[in-house]
Amino acid sequence: MELKNQKWPADEFFSRRREVLAAWPTGREVDLDEAVAYHRRAGAGRSMAALLDQARTSGRTLAQPRAGVALLLDQIELLRYLAAEGEADCLPATIDSYTRQNRYAEAQAGIEESRAAGRSMLNGFPAVNYGVAACRRVVEAVDVPVQVRHGTPDARLLAEITLAGGFTSFEGGGISYNIPYAKDVPLEKSIADWQYVDRLAGWYLEHGVTINREFFGPLTGTLVPPGISHAVGVIEALLAAEQGVKNVTLGYGQCGNLIQDVAAMLTLPRLAEDYLERCGYRGVTVTTVLHQWMGGFPADESKAFGVIAWGAATAALAGADKVIVKTPHEAVGVPGKEANAAGIKATKQVLNMLRDQFMPPTPELTEEIAVIRAETTAIVDKTLDLGDGDVALGTVRAFKAGVIDVPFAPSRFNAGRLLPARDNRGAVRLLEPANLPFDRALLDFHRERLAERGRVENREPGFQMVIDDIYAIGKGMLVGRPR
Amino acid sequence: MELKNQKWPADEFFSRRREVLAAWPTGREVDLDEAVAYHRRAGAGRSMAALLDQARTSGRTLAQPRAGVALLLDQIELLRYLAAEGEADCLPATIDSYTRQNRYAEAQAGIEESRAAGRSMLNGFPAVNYGVAACRRVVEAVDVPVQVRHGTPDARLLAEITLAGGFTSFEGGGISYNIPYAKDVPLEKSIADWQYVDRLAGWYLEHGVTINREFFGPLTGTLVPPGISHAVGVIEALLAAEQGVKNVTLGYGQCGNLIQDVAAMLTLPRLAEDYLERCGYRGVTVTTVLHQWMGGFPADESKAFGVIAWGAATAALAGADKVIVKTPHEAVGVPGKEANAAGIKATKQVLNMLRDQFMPPTPELTEEIAVIRAETTAIVDKTLDLGDGDVALGTVRAFKAGVIDVPFAPSRFNAGRLLPARDNRGAVRLLEPANLPFDRALLDFHRERLAERGRVENREPGFQMVIDDIYAIGKGMLVGRPR
Amino acid sequence: MTEEKTVVLGVIGADVHAVGNRILAYALAQAGFKVANIGVLATREEFINAALETDAAAIWVSSLYGHGELDCRGLRDQAAEAGLERILMYVGGNLVVGKQDWAGVEKRFKDMGFDRVYPPGTMPGRAIADLMRDLGLVNEVD
Amino acid sequence: MTEEKTVVLGVIGADVHAVGNRILAYALAQAGFKVANIGVLATREEFINAALETDAAAIWVSSLYGHGELDCRGLRDQAAEAGLERILMYVGGNLVVGKQDWAGVEKRFKDMGFDRVYPPGTMPGRAIADLMRDLGLVNEVD
Ligand code: B12
Ligand code: B12
């Protein structure tokens, strides 16, 4: 089947399904009708879509950790602890990296080694290996909705098993879970595989079960300018909507400059809604999630708390519907449950204290909003152009042309020519815009902002500046000033 | 001598000095000329005034902890640790509560019990008991300026010993170290005793040694509306300037609403400079300090980090010259050195990340600025009126009349009729303005803001709201909403 | 219900923390007690005199600032000497300097003769419930 | 000075963390080394083949994502089998899952045959200095 942005016909979907479910023995456990009945019995209390809706209408920001370990009982205990002691508003199962690469045999070995070692040797929860019934035990262990978080280019089997397993939200997309998470996976393949996932979510919806679909906004987590991640988010929303998804959450990784971050969070749902509407998708509910700083963290735990709390403050002031929480162990390793709860509690304290506060409009904010809108629109419009109106095809071509280019991405299907750097106030700008389809005004804006920093630091903007910025937050700064 | 705002003549000062120094044996160690020579040798690296100046001109915010223990060597180790591991920009010796009440015999017992118990039984460093030479060992142990922080209505001997002991900054004032810190000390007495301290600082200045004088902005630390603490700060600055002080730092305790706090920090130095100028004091350098939330803290350490980091963010966005740092142990007890360093590190991470960011002007901010200016001006002008132009006399009368009224203060010389509460966005307003000399517009403003909250919470603003607000931050909120 | 029992309330030693004291007084009054509030910077003698004067059923000592261990010693003996052998004595606040093991702190204050010892951040309601029980004002079973 | 020695650089296993790899490559090149960068998602075989092809002096393995312990086993033996008995092998990153005692982690990786093991957040300069020493490119005394 050739890639195009078109709702999969049922026969196509169901014939693919057979292959997908055959890829690992647990695939046999999936029974869609039984799964729908299960979700209906579980009710709204388990629904991420319902919770997000409630957060959005009440102006609250939900706090969600990452959390995944190799062993089932440990996963259950972990989630219970994060709900009770950590006060998490919603929870995840974060999937391990072997599963993400569809290496289920290695994941199995990891489970067994973990049992032997008495500690998790995997960096996440291998849901496929455990299967549907085990997933339901995880989901039922807590009173709040649970989401699947991962980074899987081909997540078809994972989606089948976890959605049948009672999870009500599924993160990822054909771009955001490929370009930062893979080296050799063609976009044609990952987009098609995620059309499958979206079609599956759409199927659930058609049978009365709303699955929330979240796209991974932070991409590589490292100095990604908002215009780029917004464009990817909008495209993934369009792709999902075509397959019948009606509940989407768009994400953004905090960059660190308050004005830029607030502008990013304010523009994100508006842009998505505009494009959904323009492309004829009606009745899609759009919510937002801010990821606390996704790049390198300081190793010192107190300093990490500083970064975490600033992310929480940004989420609150920007009115994010949800915030993904980092932990004081971020620079070192997957957090234990205490460190994980610590991150959530610090976050919630700040969210609650700022619950009734917001960032008032200012000329600086208005300018930043205009820039982000212009950038995103330029990229998405050009992508649609390149695909002759087909966003799936257009995306493949846009990446080839460097019209979308994600900094520091490992994928060879990403041009990788773009270089970001912070300006003098810490906003992320483009040092090397490479082939982004920006007009002169936008390009001048970026150049001038970086030139300003260069003048202050008395150096030419260049790769050393980029390196300094990559290390900066880890070393207790935002802008990587020369020493 | 009757109280008036007039520079003490030398003979008056020196005859008082004899009594002061005779109050405890270590008083004999003070030799002013030798002390001046000592300060000159020590140089600018030890000068708090020089450091603050540098912070102000470079737009940086200094981080300073509280720190005081009973035993000398422990105090030295503590400060060294907070400089090296905690990365503190300047340091304090926080004085114990017996010394603050001039109970030197009890402080001595506390030192001895601490030696016996092997842990500090005092909540601070009893500098008077240790004397001049020991103070110099403390000051010399670190490379950064060290300040005396306390809460002493009669701090004359403490000032003599610590300033001769090489400290270059001294906190307190005749109002701010009486009303929140005493029950039975008449303002006539505390103001006169602080005129002595200011005269002493003035004397040092006349001999080439700048002593920075900081006033204790937070007062009772509990829902003090900025107009009140600003008025006290301005008055203390005027009183100090009259005695020849030329380097003052005005303080403010974070209330928690960003806009209100930024407005408070922006107005504070402007108001002080305006009044100093208007009253004829030239060449006084004014800097500012923000205290991270001074009321009840959450017991959970992660949540405490959230409060700390939000205070740091506020200080940075408001452009404070210095921030006084809380610790994750705040709700429980005087922090050990690790907890203390942790608070500083979290703070510095945020300060550094926000160093190049600021809160842009907005209509909300402009309104808040106007309110704080109007309130402060109303109180200070009425105080000057009441004193027939003499601010010292006026202050005594203003407190008697409730023209200045500090919420929750223990002093019986404070009217104690005023009640503050948060509005719907968490800004601190007046529920019961009692006798504050506010015009109708200001009173309406406060009433309307609280009525708005009342409508949202569906209850009449009243004392239960005040109690809820007192507990709120400790329970993870800013506004004490009904459960 | 409380038969207008009186509680003497104060903050001992050189301690000026006034906020908790204000709230405790309000909460006790709301619960129907008479409150003899001697406020902050209260000496042991002031506690005892107030208890004698008001024929109090209990003394509630607050100490927030860390010197509680030094300030509270001898209070029980002085009370006994004054003829207040059976008066209830509670203490609460931030009783010692720093974050210490609570069991140890509680024991030290119980050894000083306090009937109940409360950790930092205790909500008034909890102690008032204890007081009603200790005074036999509520049925133990419910 | 470095006589154009080659270092094979890559991120092992199912690991896609690309940022550190990019910076290490840049830093090694700046220090005068030739870099054979096999990038992320690198298998043990790819490391060994690259080392053979480029006659490399050292292999630098990165593992950030936590599975390093599972992925690195056998690399030393496979290298020996391929005739690379004496090649230097360094490993660095976030080698294990979670925050673990560093001495234990270091020992486990040394036991696997790595010559040097670096904790999270190691700056490239430090390891490059070690490499120059191990390759005899600098005088031990300075
Ligand atoms: C950015 C990031 C990501 C990005 C990566 C984008 C990309 N493709 O590059 C995204 C968001 C995609 C991501 C995904 C994941 N990540 Co990640 N990620 C990070 C993060 C925040 C920063 C990494 C980074 O770029 N640092 C900056 C660079 C310059 O530093 P560096 O990578 O540490 O490398 C330097 C040194 O370590 C050293 N070094 C490295 N290797 C070697 C080798 C030698 C020989 C020497 C001498 C030195 C050396 O030199 C380098 C240059 O200075 C770290 C945590 C942190 N450090 O703060 C987590 C972290 C590495 N990620 C982690 C995990 C678990 C994951 C995920 C599984 C998702 C999850 N559960 O959260 C997936 C895994 C995907 C996969 N299959 O690999 C964990 C690993 C946990 C562990 N070891 O216990 C970390 C530590 C976070 C955590 N505490 O949980 N991640
Ligand atoms: C506000 C405050 C101040 C204000 C007080 C203003 C005033 N006059 O009231 C100011 C700024 C002036 C101040 C000064 C000082 N403070 Co102070 N202060 C606080 C703070 C932040 C909040 C106290 C408060 O008002 N809480 C709200 C009220 C409602 O709660 P509460 O006081 O805890 O009381 C409740 C319960 O404890 C309980 N309770 C109290 N007593 C009793 C008794 C009984 C019988 C029962 C059943 C219950 C009970 O019920 C109360 C009502 O709910 C606390 C730390 C915290 N808790 O977060 C530090 C704290 C109490 N202060 C402390 C110290 C050391 C000082 C100073 C020495 C300065 C310094 N080194 O920092 C001076 C001392 C002055 C003096 N001579 O007493 C320490 C005490 C340390 C210790 N015990 O180890 C604390 C814990 C901070 C810290 N971690 O260092 N402080």
UniProtKB/TrEMBL annotation, chains A, B:
Keywords of the record: Cobalamin, Cobalt, Isomerase
EC number per UniProt: 5.4.99.1
Binding site for adenosylcob(III)alamin: 68, 123, 180, 297, 326, 330
An example Gene Ontology biological process: L-glutamate catabolic process via L-citramalate
SUPFAM superfamilies: Cobalamin (vitamin B12)-dependent enzymes
CDD domains the UniProt entry points to: Glm_e
Cofactor: adenosylcob(III)alamin
Family: Belongs to the methylaspartate mutase GlmE subunit family.
Subunit structure, interactors included: Heterotetramer composed of 2 epsilon subunits (GlmE) and 2 sigma subunits (GlmS). GlmE exists as a homodimer and GlmS as a monomer.
Protein name: Glutamate mutase epsilon subunit
Automatic annotation (TrEMBL), chains C, D:
Function: Catalyzes the carbon skeleton rearrangement of L-glutamate to L-threo-3-methylaspartate ((2S,3S)-3-methylaspartate).
Major enzyme class: isomerase
Originating species: Desulfotomaculum copahuensis
EC nos: 5.4.99.1
Annotated SUPFAM superfamilies: Cobalamin (vitamin B12)-binding domain
NCBIfam families with a match to the protein in the record: acid_CoA_mut_C (TIGR00640), MthylAspMutase (TIGR01501), PRK02261.1 (NF002612)
GO molecular function, one term: methylaspartate mutase activity
Top-level taxon in the UniProt lineage: Bacteria
Name of the molecule in the record: Glutamate mutase sigma subunit
Matching Pfam families: B12-binding
GO BP terms, alphabetized: anaerobic L-glutamate catabolic process; L-glutamate catabolic process via L-citramalate
Binding site for adenosylcob(III)alamin: 14-18, 62-64, 94-98
Domain B12-binding span(s) in chain numbering: 4-142
Pathway in which this enzyme or protein is active: Amino-acid degradation; L-glutamate degradation via mesaconate pathway; acetate and pyruvate from L-glutamate: step 1/4
Subunit: Heterotetramer composed of 2 epsilon subunits (GlmE) and 2 sigma subunits (GlmS). GlmE exists as a homodimer and GlmS as a monomer.
Gene3D superfamilies assigned: Cobalamin-binding domain
Catalytic activity: (2S,3S)-3-methyl-L-aspartate = L-glutamate
Keywords attached to this entry: Cobalamin, Cobalt, Isomerase, Metal-binding
UniProt cofactor(s): adenosylcob(III)alamin
UniProt similarity note: Belongs to the methylaspartate mutase GlmS subunit family.
